[in-house]
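thread from #wetlab-drylab

HS: before we spend reagent money on co-crystallization trials with cytidine-5'-monophosphate, can we at least see a predicted complex? here's what I'd submit
DV: go for it
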Amino acid sequence: MLTGKRILLIIGGGIAAYKSLELIRGLTRAGALVTPVLTRAGSEFVTPLSVSALAGEKVYSDLWDLTDEAEMGHIQLSRVADLVVVAPATADLMAKMAAGLADDLASTLLLATDTPVLIAPAMNVRMWQHPATRRNLSALTGDGIAVVGPAVGDMACGEHGPGRMAEPADILAAVTARLSGGALSGRHLLITSGPTHEPIDPVRYIANRSSGAQGAAIARAALALGARVSFVTGPAAVAAPDGVEAIRVETAQQMLEAVTAALPADAAIFAAAVADWRVAGPSGSKIKKGQGGSPVLEFTENPDILAHVAGMAEGRPLLVVGFAAETDDVTANATAKRARKGCDWILANDVSPGSGIMGGAENAVTLITGDGAEDWPRAGKDAVAARLVARIAEALA
Ligand code: C5P
């Protein structure tokens, strides 16, 4: 699978470093050649001897090791790989990468490399949620660095939440996807995202609280697997990811037009929170106070974009995926919705108040397919997106 591929594996200083030993085994079993780099903090958690024994290669750790510089300079070391993997990527390493610091071997290699980089963040939940780490993460993804995880769960420090390093098997899957040319390369995915704005008059509109975070995460995951992505987005708080073909719209009607124009696609994922109704005949001028009491708004139904595409007799994408935001009886309602809309899959989530999902960083979903319902554990929206997109790649294969 990874035969002959060279991985430069940078092991940062966190308790999750013990999992990087299992990652080395997985990579070498898949045929990869692993060149390990251990930071000084990393060597507090795993020994250079165990790392080199598993990798079957010398461990590099010191920028100032003159023997290494004579054998292989740090610039050359940064370029020998097909992929640089940082696991665990600590908050400190991420901060250094985002700032472009180069004060040890690992950070120098990361600054000097011209090779794609994949990071597996691992840190305490508060550190992961800290605005500084959020800023660093968005700088790194903006720089084209791929991210796997973190997962949500119990942490070594006794707290619970997002911050656990992705499991070695998931990191291995992410490495394989990047190095195999991408399971979705040559495929076109159409993704809708964000809310719609339905005008009342030229200055007022009706909207909803969708942030567009889940749609953007799905787009990033699809890009990571090599897909071409058409991203039709309403006015969302979360920016369209770099690398997509972004088509910006405001209303449901515009979204339907943009979706139709972006077809054909191999798969279409409808993550947008489309307004079900729009104001019938919005006023052409600002509605003023004092014109015979409060205005009465009349509504008319918006086109159902998902149902429209799912029901296309010609040019229907091979796979049509909808979302169902439910507040009760999630599985039953979503199963009924799948049948009503005629789509292939529905990803259902509980958006009841208190779930923190709408506009939050996490999602707990149930996948409804023709084979039944599958509950997925609560995870970051990126992890949910990666899992969904991997399933789509499997279904299209
Ligand atoms: O009917 P409901 O709004 O719950 O359905 C949600 C799913 O349908 C989502 O996938 C959403 O993107 C899609 N949808 C749509 N057009 C609409 C309403 C919903 O594409 N007008």
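DV: The longest helix spans residues 381-396.
HS: ok that's useful, forwarding to the group
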